[in-house]
Specification:
The chain is α+β, with helices and mostly antiparallel strands. Helices cover 37% and strands 16% of the residues. Among the domains are: 99 residues, Killer Toxin P4, Chain A (2-Layer Sandwich); 111 residues, Killer Toxin P4, Chain A; 188 residues, Transferase(Phosphotransferase), domain 1 (Orthogonal Bundle), CATH 1.10.510. The strands form six sheets. It has a five-stranded antiparallel β-sheet with strand order 1-4-5-3-2, covered by helices on one side. Keywords: ATP-binding, Glycoprotein, Kinase, Membrane, Nucleotide-binding, Phosphoprotein, Receptor, Repeat, Serine/threonine-protein kinase, Signal, Transferase, Transmembrane, Transmembrane helix.
Length: 683
């Protein structure tokens, strides 16, 4: 009887939230608007006829009703040569009302950004809007352009990668070009290569184009791939008349998850309509049959969903066993490493092989019998990390695959032993280089702190900044799970032999549903490293992706200045000036060049200053003002993108913490290598 009540409650919950689930729309892959004023199109004066027509066209958007296919063709005015024309197009998955709202905002902002040009185009994440003094409907246009690259290059199977990429894009091009007058769009997947088992892509044309023009527009874009981004595993390209995208993960929604297109409507007096009505008994009998079939199917499907949720709930409630018959257990078992093997690899966990200690135990260097070097994290019995938490960390780390993340190789559970096995990173962590900590690779040499920092010329530091940005972007946007790291700092950035950065220690990572990543959450378990913690997290326990953005900004400034945000002050030294306040003061006083690490004797000063600017944008006091990592990646990759003016950074000192939260935070202060367990939320 208890089971029946539980099932009934679950069904009631599902039926209650079905409308909201259907209305939900996830799109976290945002970029700042890109305004393009086409100077070659000529200019107009403020009081000209064209100015009045253009303003009238933009004003008319407020009275429009949303259209089902996200495409708008507009014009205003009667004067020959002074008429204003416009075209707008939304991405396939954008809802109708959201589409129209995006277009209205884009149009208003475009005429403000391009107040005198007769031709202009703007791309927002969700829509495109362009206007002209010439007819643009039905005419292919391929300039200006906007492109994004993931910054990740294919390292093997290059020829096969190129072949499969073009094969997928060509297939999508043909489908999109063959689309009707309402929509010319295609999305789909194709076979991948080793390391990237599946490729995904989309192709989109404005539906006013002919099939040939749509085809030619996309071909024009495909031909530019080798010139800018050959071998890139992720790219997006926009033209006024078409766009396409290629990724190694599914970025699009399935048609079944989107707003349905309206049914084709025949005129009431059309012979076809009359004949169909006669055949179906005036149209009513067919509808009744459809309803009689569909409704039971929907109810059965909902019941099945309820039953699955109940079974999953009962399973979770009964306790998460580390071993079992489900897919996750099989996946975990495939990573299992024998304890005796790890003892042999680490010389029985010899103190001489110990690399460091953290909040949950020690990390050892090991070597498998085949010669592979590994890092072994042996958790202490008093760490509080149980079987479920341990398994969660395994599942989390093993499913994250990115060149800028430390890779999990395996794990071990035997008796009280809980051990994780990672790839071994030879050059230790970033703080060893920029803050002068002694570390094994250089301990055998007589190397000064300055000489260690000189190993990091600007090219290396810029590569580190870009690599960490890509790693965070993967965690926030591109991975199978959406993850907030919550403890990003210099000691958690490991450097491989080529000085490529790898983000480590996901001890504070928080796993979220796709539609929850940008939402602020609260926790009473505030843990991390002062100097890197965003103020809203350190003081109130509020965190979001912007928490990681703040930490990234601190890291960027540390890399450029060669100073740590915690250096030079103690907990009780309220008058000490920390790194952020010093850099901000120099920024305001126009002496920003003085903050650059003296060992940086080469490198583009404009590029260095741009990175400081980006760092200051990331550490702004207001979380809402900080950019997303997607925007940060764009700022780093596009020197033509105009950076906004940063506002005051947050200066959070331990001594400045409110008294009502200090007691809960003080016991959680950690050394540079401390970590905590991963936390997972259901999808």
């Amino acid at each position: 009887m208890e089971h029946v009540r539980v099932i009934f409650l679950f069904c009631a919950c599902v039926l209650t939230f079905v409308p909201f689930i259907c209305l939900a729309q996830t799109d976290k892959y945002e970029f700042p608007p890109s305004f393009n004023c086409v100077a070659s199109g000529g200019n107009f004066t403020a009081n000209s006829t064209f100015a009045g027509n253009l303003n009238g066209l933009v004003s008319s958007l407020s009275s429009l009703t949303s259209k089902p296919y996200g495409f708008y063709n507009l014009s205003s005015g009667d004067s020959s040569g002074e008429r204003a024309y416009a075209i707008a197009l939304c991405r396939r998955e954008v809802k109708r009302d959201d589409c129209l709202s995006c277009i209205k905002i884009a149009a208003r902002n475009l005429i403000e950004q391009c107040p005198r040009t007769k031709q202009a185009v703007v791309w927002y994440t969700h829509c495109m809007f362009r206007y002209s003094n010439m007819i643009i409907y039905g005419r292919k246009e391929t300039t200006p352009t906007l492109s994004f690259q993931a910054g990740k290059n294919i390292s093997a199977n290059r020829d096969e990668f190129d072949r499969l990429q073009i094969e997928l894009l060509d297939r999508l091009k043909g489908t999109a070009a063959a689309g009707g007058p309402n929509r010319k769009y295609a999305q789909g997947s194709g076979s991948g290569v080793a390391g990237y088992p599946q490729f995904y892509g989309s192709a989109h044309c404005t539906p006013d184009l002919s099939e040939q023009d749509c085809n030619d527009c996309l071909v024009f874009g495909f031909e530019r791939i080798p010139r800018c981004c050959d071998g890139q595993v992720g790219l997006r390209w926009f033209f006024p008349s078409c766009s396409f995208r290629f990724e190694t993960w599914r970025f699009y929604e399935f048609d079944s998850d989107l707003e349905p297109d309206p049914p084709a409507i025949q005129p009431a007096d059309s012979p076809t309509s009359a004949a169909r009505t006669e055949r179906t008994g005036k149209g009513k009998g067919g509808s009744k049959v459809i309803i009689a079939i569909v409704v039971p199917i929907v109810l059965v499907a909902l019941f099945a969903i309820c039953l699955c949720l109940v079974l999953k709930w009962k399973k979770n409630k009964s306790g998460g066993r580390v071993k079992g018959p489900n897919a996750e257990d099989e996946f975990s078992d495939s990573l299992l490493v024998d304890f005796e093997t790890l003892k042999a690899a680490t010389d029985n966990f010899s103190p001489e092989n110990e690399l460091g200690r953290g909040g949950f135990g020690s990390v050892y260097k090991g070597v498998f019998s085949g010669g592979q070097e590994i890092a072994v994290k042996r958790l202490s019995c008093t760490s509080g990390q149980g079987d479920i938490e341990f398994k969660n960390e395994i599942l989390l780390l093993a499913k994250l695959q990115h060149r800028n993340l430390v890779r999990l190789l395996g794990f071990c559970i035997e008796g009280q032993e809980r051990i994780l096995v990672y790839e071994f990173i030879k050059n230790a962590s970033l703080d060893n280089f920029i803050f002068g900590t002694v570390f094994p690779p250089l301990a055998q040499y007589d190397v000064t702190d300055l000489e260690k920092r000189q190993l990091l010329d600007w090219g290396v530091r810029y590569k580190m900044i870009g690599g960490v940005a890509r790693g965070l972007l993967y965690l926030h946007e591109d991975s199978r799970y959406r993850i907030i790291h919550r403890d990003l700092k210099a000691s958690n950035i490991l450097l491989d032999q080529e000085m490529n950065p790898k983000i480590a220690d996901f001890g504070l990572a928080k796993l979220f549903d796709t539609d929850q990543t940008s939402t602020h959450r609260f926790t009473s378990r505030i843990a991390g490293t002062y100097g890197y913690m965003a103020p809203e997290y350190a003081i109130y326990g509020q965190f979001s992706v912007k928490t990681d953005v703040f930490s990234f900004g601190v890291l960027v400034i540390e890399i450029i200045t060669g100073k740590g945000n915690n250096n030079g002050r103690s907990k009780n030294d309220e008058d000490a000036e920390n790194l952020l306040s010093w850099v901000w003061r120099c920024w305001r006083e126009d002496t920003i060049l003085s903050v650059i690490d003296p060992s940086l004797t080469t490198g583009s000063r404009s590029e260095i200053l741009r990175c400081i600017h980006i760092g200051l944008l990331c550490v702004q006091e207001s979380a809402a003002s900080r950019p997303t990592m997607d925007s940060v990646a764009l700022m780093l990759n596009s020197s033509s993108y105009t950076l906004p003016t940063p506002s005051r950074p947050a200066f959070v000192l331990e001594s400045g913490m409110p008294s009502n939260v200090s007691s809960s935070i003080e016991p959680l202060l950690m050394s540079l290598n401390d970590v905590t367990v991963s936390e997972l939320s259901p999808r």
